[in-house]
Amino acid sequence: MACFERVTAWAPPRQPASLKLTSNGTLATGAAQLGPIGETIAAVYLSRHGYRVLDRNVRTRRGEIDLVARHGDELVFVEVKSWRRVPVEGLEHAVDRRKQQRILSVARAYVARNADRCGGLRQRFDVILVRGGVVVHHVEGAFEG
C-alpha cells in the first residue's frame, strides 16, 4: 500500500480572530500565531507544487517535524521557519546541526512507525522559509539524513 493512501485529510487551523493583513497584503500576526500560520502556508505551497501533505506537527519525545509530505517516490520531512521581518539572506542557517539531529531522529521514528506504508521511499529533508506570510524560499535537500 502506498504511503499516502492511508492518510486522513487535514484542514488548516481555523483562522485566528486577530489575523489581519498589512497594507502590502502580508499577514500581521502575533508571535504565537506565526509558526502555525507559516506551517499552513508551507503546506498549501507544497500541495500546489505537486506534493501530498501526509502529516503535520509529528511529535516524539525526541522532537518535532513540522510537515511530512510525499513527492513522487520521496518521503519529504519539512522544517518551516517563519519570520515577520528578517532578510532572506542566511535564513537557511536557521536550522542548525542540533535541530537537524532532532529532525533526523523524529524522521527515523516516523518511518519505523509507518514502515508498512513508507519504508521503501527515499527520504529528503527540506526547509521552507516563510516571511510576512509568503514562502520566500524552498530549500530542497537542505541537509542529509
CATH domain class name: Alpha Beta
Strands of the largest sheet, in order across it? 3-4-5-6-7
Strand content: 35-45%
Q: Helix coverage percent of residues?
A: 25-40%
Low-confidence stretches: 1-18
Explain what you see.
- By secondary structure, the chain is of the alpha+beta class.
- It has a single domain (26-143), classed as Trna Endonuclease, Chain: A, domain 1 (3-Layer(aba) Sandwich), CATH 3.40.1350.
- The chain is 27% helix and 36% strand.
- The protein has 3 helices and 7 strands, in the order E-E-H-E-E-E-H-H-E-E.
- The strands form 2 sheets. A 5-stranded mixed sheet has the order 3-4-5-6-7. It has a two-stranded antiparallel ribbon with strand order 1-2.
- It is globular, with a radius of gyration of 15 Å.
